[in-house]
Structure formats: structure tokens, C-alpha cells
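task queued by scheduler; priority normal; single chain, no ligands, no partner chains; default sampling; output format set to C-alpha cells
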Amino acid sequence: MLLENKTAVIYGAGGDVGNAIAKAFAREGARLFLVGRNLASLKPVADEIRQRGGIVEATETDALDPQQVERHMNEMLKMVDRIDISLNVIGIHYVQGIPLVEMKPEQFTKGITDVMQTQFLTMTAAGRQMIRQGSGVILAISATPAGRFVPTNSGNFGVACAAIENLCRQMAGELGPHGIRVVCLRSAGSPDAPGLDAFFRRLANQIGVTREALEADLAKSTMLKRMPKITEVANMASLVASDYAAAMTGSIANVTCGDAVN
């Protein structure tokens, strides 16, 4: 198993991406701490992992709150002596489907501010502990608009994704001498994830096409002529978090089916 004897914390584990990655990490042998703002969203994930023999704790914590992030980190360290993997995929409210020139300043800045705050809080909390233990992996996830223009009014989402990738590079440079790796996975979005499916339906309605036509049009720009499945993103997260990727840091793991070429 890729992550046997590893301990991982996943913020936003009740969402589509966090759910999929939590199950993949558990399958690969990791002990899990699942975090979310709503304990009810974490329970089905935790229950399924336990039923399959995994070791998991679920905690209601707001990863946008500095005090709650630190308190949760301290609580974890009462149960385990190290944190090997940290991933933050909490839901952020981005404004898409509107041209930038029609957005209000607060519409543009809110999502960017929120994602930077939560990523900074969880990365630095994990980083401080990983410095003490001399190893660890911090992961994040961005999307195609971080690296290229997407002509569907991606709003503040693409700007936020680019900020996530640059934060990862900065953290990788600072934490690398301590034996800590930082990697960002870039996805093109997974249409089989319920949340993205619902977003595709809203966006398709806004621009006047069918949901199927929107996905097909987006898939045309990929080299594989399809978009990545949520399990494929989760599998890549498991691989990047594992010791098989021990020489990989400060980089973007491309899981876009060839939509964005590094």
C-alpha cells in the first residue's frame, strides 16, 4: 500500500474531491483525520472508511479560523506523534459566469481572500509540525484556469487557482530544506463529481447551451478528448503523497487529460 503507516489530515473531506481522496488514502493504508465545517457531511465518508477497515477520525472545524485550525492540530497531536500528509480542499464560493468588468470588487476579492487564508492557515500549521519531525507532504489542488485563459468567464476562480499554485511553490522553497515536500495537483474538473455536474448545469444555462454540450466543448481542448474522473485525481493525490514521489516538490501534478500542458 502506498500510504501504509502514514497519517493524513484532509480539510474539506465532506466535499466531492475531499471525499474521493479520503477513500483513496484509506485504501492505500493511511490513518485519516477528516475535517469539515459540518460534521454531518463527514460522517458518511468516515463510516464507509471504517466499514472497510480504515482508521479515521472526523472533526467539525472551520479551516478559515486560525484558532480552530491550531486547536485541531493540537488535538490531532495528542493522538498521533506526526502528521505525514496535509491537504486542504474546503469549498470556496467563487463567482464565475460573469465578465470581470461586470463584477463588483467584493465579488472578485472574496473567494481569493478566503482561499488564501485557509490554505495559508493549514499549510503553515502542518509546516510547523513537519519541521519538528523533519518530513511531510503538503498538497493542494488547483484547476486549468490557473495556467491558461478559459473563455467561459471563470471570474475569480482562475486567479485564485494561480495564487494557490504560487503559494505552493513559495512554501516548497521554504520548507524543502526541512525535508518537506509541497505539490499542487491541477485538474481540469471531474464531470462525474456531483458538485461539478451541478455547476456545469448552471453555467450551461447561463451561456445558453446544454450541459452535455458544455462538457463536450470543454473536452475538445484536452489531448485525451475527455475530462479526468474524480477517482483519477484521487489516485494521483495518493501517488504524489507517497514515498514513490519523494523527489517531487514545488511542482504541478498535471491531471487535466492534457488540457493544460506544463
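post-processing summary
- The longest helix spans residues 105-133.
- The chain has a mean pLDDT of 94.
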